[in-house]
Request: fold
Amino acid sequence: MNNFLVQPFKNFLKASQFTEKLLEKCCLGSRVIDILFHFPVSVQNRSGDINNFKDKEKLTVILKIIDHAAPRYKSSIYKVFGETTNGDIITIRYFNYNSAFIRRSLPIGEIFVVSGVAQRTMEGIQITHPDVIASSNMLQYYIGPELIYPLISKLQNRTVQYAVSSLLKAMPEIPDWVTAETISKNNLMTFTQALKTIHNPRSFVDESLFASAKKRIAIDELLVNQIRLKQMRESISNCKTKPLISNGDLLEKLVLPFDLTVDQKSCLEDIKKDLSSGKPMNRLIQGDVGSGKTIVAFIAMLIALENKVQATFLVPTEILATQHFESIRKMSENLGIKIDIILSSNRRRRSEQIKKLKNGETQILIGTHALFEDNIEFGKLGLVIIDEQHRFGVMQRLSLIKKCQYPNILAMSATPIPRTLLLGFYRDLDVSTIKTKPEGRKIIKTTVIGVSKINDLIARLREINSQIYWICPVIEESETLMDINTRYEYITSHFSRNDVFILHGKMKMQEKDEIICRFKKGEFKILISTTVVEVGVNILNANVIVIEHAERFGLAQLHQLRGRVGRGNEKAYCVLLYHSPLSNIGKKRLQLMKTVTDGFLLSEEDLKLRGAGDILGKEQSGFNSLRFSDFSNNYDLIKIAEEISRKINPNNIKFLSDIFKRLNEDIIA
Reply:
C-alpha cells in the first residue's frame, strides 16, 4: 500500500518550524493523514462585491493605502484608510496592535488585496482585523466560499487551508482496501474521493455530498474498531489458563443477609462456566443501578481464591474503591481472607503492600489507576474485575492482563449498554445482564420543577428528616451554570452551616473520605456535590437527591445520580431542577426521566439524543479514539464495516490501522 498518508507532513509543505509545530498541535499529529483528518466545521463566503455584500460577511477588495490614523493612546483604535478602484474609501481597524508592524505591513501608496469581516457603519465600510493581506494579483484566490477549520491560538485559517490543499495536490490515488463490489453495492466513495470531497467548499453547499464523504470515513473508522475487537478477543483466547472450579471451601461459609435474584444466579452460572472452561474469561456484566453486580463479582473472587489464585478489583474513583473495600471486608468477616486497598493518594504503606501482594499474602486487592503502575506485582493473579469498565481503555485493561498468571476478566457496567454499542464496542466480551433488582428496592419518585420555585423546594426540604444530595454541574463560578459555592451560600442562608457540606473532585482524598464518612453517620443533612457521587456511593439514610441544571445532563448520568437514593427502607425522591430556557432535547430528557425508571430503556433513548461518545464519556480513554462515527444512527454503517472486515485483505490491515493511529494504539498486533 502507498505510505504517503503516514509520512510526516513537513516533507510536503514549505513552512517554518513554528508553523509545523502549530499544525501538529492543532491536528493532533505530525503525519499527512493527521492534517487531512482535520475536517472543516463550516463554510463562509468571501464576497468581492462591495455594493452587495452582507453585513458582517467577509469582504475581499483591492485597496490602495492612502493614510494611517495612529491614536494617541494605546487603548484606542488604530485606523488605516484604503481606496478601492472605484474610489470608495474603506477603513481598516485594529484594536490590539503593534503600530510599527502595521505601518510596515500597509505602507501608504501600496496596493493590496485585503479581506476580512466587513460592516456598514455611519462612517462607511469598515474591516476589522483583516485576515488576508496579499499582493494585488492574488484577488481571485480570496473570493468565493472558504472552509473554516478548528484552530488553536496563533494558527490562522489560511495556514490550515494551505496545508490541506498542498497535501491533497501531492496525494497519489490510494489503492482502496474496500472491494469495488462493496463500494458499488453500498454506494460508497473511495477513500481518496472522500478526503477530497470533505475539503472541497462545494461539499458544504451540497450537504448530501458531504454526508456521503463522511459516511465513508466513518465506515473505515468502524472497520478499524472491528479489527481491534477481533484481535483483542483472539489475543486473550490464545492465552494459557487453568480451570478455576469452585470446591466450596469459601462459598459454603459465605452467609448473605438476602437471597440472590434470578438474574444474579444466571450471571454466576455464566461466570462459573467461563472459569471452569480452561479458556480465559472475558465477560461483561451489565446491570441497572442497584441491581446487585458487586455481590456477583465478590462470589467470582471467592471462586478464584478457592483455587489459590489472587483477585483484583479495579474501580475508577477512590471514593468507590474505599466503599468496595469496606463492603467486601464486611461480607468476608468469617472467611479469614486477606484484603487490601491501594490508592494513588496514599503511598505510606506502599512498600509493605507490594511485598504482601507479591508473596501472595494479600488475596484480594482493590484499587484505582494505581494498579497499573509497574511496581504493583502479584504473586499469582487469576481474576481481574473492572468496575465501570468504560472508564478504562483497552490498553489499560491489557496492562492488568499482563500481570495475570491466569488471565480472566470480569467487567461491570452500571450504565446499561444499548444493543448498537454492544455490537460496535463490546464484541470482544461475552455479556451477562442483570435486570431484576433485589427484593425491597423501592421505585424512586421523580419530579421536575423550575429553579423559579426553589424557595418552595427549600421549604419542603426543611420539613423532612431524610439526608439530601444536592448535585451541581460545576465547582467554579460560571456565567451559565450554577456552581457549588454559590449554591452553598444560598442553602446555608436557610439551613445551619453545620448541616451543609461540600464535596467535589478537587478535594484531597482524606478530606473527601472524612466528609463521606460523616454523611454516612448522619452528622449533617445536605451534601452539595458534583457528579463525584455518581457511581457507587451508598448512604442508606439519603432519600432525596436534587439535581440542578438537570436539563444539561444526559439520561444515563441522571439515572446514575438518581440511583444514589432509595437504598434504605424509606420512600425516595429525585428532584430535577431545571433552568430556563429549555431546549427541545432538554424537555424530552426531563419528561423521560419523570416517566421511565428502566435504565435499559433510558440508555437507548440517551443514545438517540446524544450519540455514543457522550453517553459513556468522550474523554474516557476507552472512547476518545472515535472521531467520525456516531452510533446513535449508524447501525447500518456498523454492519457494512463488519462485512468489509470479513473480506479485507490481511496485507491492508496494518496500513489501515496506521491511518487511524489513535485506534491503532489500542490494537494488539
Observations:
- The CA atoms of residues 156 and 249 lie 69 Å apart.
- DSSP finds 24 helices and 21 strands in the chain.
